[in-house]
């Protein structure tokens, strides 16, 4: 049965809602967060989920439009068939063309967004490593929780998943993954941190730092 005006409206509204929600999800900008003492960025995994959800919705709508078009014609048509189309056939043909154009536009946006997220990951890792290079772990200054480069975008929500996403997201090479994990195991081995426990200014700081180091390790 041909697609009704109400169905087209609901499909369009559903797509608009998802694009608006995606825009809200990507409002965060790359920044240095003093409170968390780490280089923070937009939630990459969350953005990728929204992108995938957006395209799932679009794919569902594509099936609806294509099914309706096949109902009219029984097959796709080229420009030479347009003159012989009925009004309903022509309307379906136009909707199909518009949908394809929109999909192409969104695919370009999707590809650009993937590149942008990959650049953010790269900048985040560079910032994290630079912070470690600057961190005076072998000096005489006090070591306080907020000055430590933690491998997470938000130390308040520390979890295995968050640490893995921060360190490994976007990396496909197994040898590179193993190298990164070995380096981080060395950085956050509890025995290493016990050597600098005297530099921690208070019992509260010692407890907080060592508990977090142990959790990461």
Automatic annotation (TrEMBL):
Source taxon at top rank: Eukaryota
Annotated keywords: ANK repeat, Nucleus, Phosphoprotein, Repeat
Organism, scientific name: Racocetra fulgida
GO cellular component terms, semicolon-separated: nucleus
Ranges of compositional bias, category Basic and acidic residues: 1-17
Location in the cell: Nucleus
Main location: nucleus
Lineage: Eukaryota, Fungi, Fungi incertae sedis, Mucoromycota, Glomeromycotina
The protein's name: 10813_t:CDS:1
One GO biological process term: negative regulation of canonical NF-kappaB signal transduction
UniProt entry tagged with the keyword Repeat: yes
Region (Disordered): 1-29
InterPro entries the UniProt entry points to: NFKBIL1
Bias kind Polar residues: ranges: 18-29
């Amino acid at each position: 049965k041909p697609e009704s005006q109400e169905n087209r409206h609901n499909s369009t509204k559903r797509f608009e809602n998802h694009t608006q929600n995606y825009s809200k999800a990507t409002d965060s900008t790359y920044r240095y967060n003093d409170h968390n003492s780490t280089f923070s960025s937009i939630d990459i995994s969350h953005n990728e989920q929204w992108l995938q959800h957006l395209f799932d919705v679009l794919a569902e709508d594509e099936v609806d439009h294509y099914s309706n078009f096949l109902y009219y014609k029984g097959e796709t048509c080229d420009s030479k068939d347009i003159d012989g189309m009925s009004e309903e056939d022509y309307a379906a043909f136009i909707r199909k063309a518009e949908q394809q154009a929109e999909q192409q536009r969104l695919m370009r946006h999707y590809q650009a967004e993937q590149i942008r997220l990959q650049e953010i990951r790269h900048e985040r890792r560079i910032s994290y490593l630079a912070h470690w290079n600057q961190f005076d772990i072998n000096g005489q200054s006090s070591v306080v929780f907020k000055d430590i480069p933690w491998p997470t975008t938000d130390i308040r929500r520390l979890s295995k998943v968050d640490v893995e996403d921060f360190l490994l997201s976007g990396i496909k090479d197994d040898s590179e993954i193993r190298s990164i994990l070995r380096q981080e195991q060395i950085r956050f081995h509890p025995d290493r941190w016990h050597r600098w426990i005297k530099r921690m200014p208070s019992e509260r700081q010692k407890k907080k730092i060592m508990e977090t180091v142990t959790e990461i390790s």
